[in-house]
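hey so i finally got around to running the thing on that chain from the lab meeting. sorry it took forever, my laptop kept dying and i had to restart like 3 times. anyway pasting the input first so we r on the same page abt which one it is
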Amino acid sequence: MGTAGLVAAAAVEQTRLRRLLGWTGPDGTVPDVPPVAVSVTRQKSAARGCDVEFVTMNAAPGLQVCVVLHGRGSSARGMVTLGLPQFLAAARAKFTVVAVDGGDSYWVPRGADDPQKMLTAELPGWLRAAGLGEPRAVLGISMGCFGGLVYARQAGLPAAVLSPALFRSWDDARTVNAFADEAQWESYEPLRHPLPARLGVWCGYEDPFYDSAREVAAHAEVADFDHGEHTDGYWRRVLPDALRWLA
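ok and heres what got predicted. didnt touch it at all, straight out
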């Protein structure tokens, strides 16, 4: 095992020990309140070459729209499972949240599957058909932060990112098998491009992407760091703060 591998293994072991000792912070809980209204429909995405689920939460005409981008291994419906409808209800949010399925390739094109094109070319039409307005903000979780920052930069939107899964080097990026090559990664990697003018970042000390989050935080309007891992429990803990900032 090389030096980098030894460092990574040591970090994993340290996090495991801190978890056993209860030093990674408490898990957040889903508020015990009735959720806001949720709608799940299927849309044909030519950009992705497949049907995707289109989820709206707290939808109402005239409300501003925030697009939430899910993490790897999750989906649009996963944002409902995370408890976002209850968090929106508890916050008495005056905005709509929408989510779409983006796959697992870090929201960048892979072959004929282009989730960024779906966001820019197809999502506005789906929103109009649902009686909703144009996106006004972005919320990303884990891998969704990568795609969310790309989307926010292109659309000129504010972005809130929780545990941003970003890569400081190609050696790190290639391990997730999401990018065609180093050139594609560099063309999309948010750390290699200007970040949104309005940006909020939340990340735990024990998160494997902590160093990347610190780099993002240097450009953020608000940056919050505390003990926490790359888990649903951490995201549930910080979602109330992120939603307040987005409001």
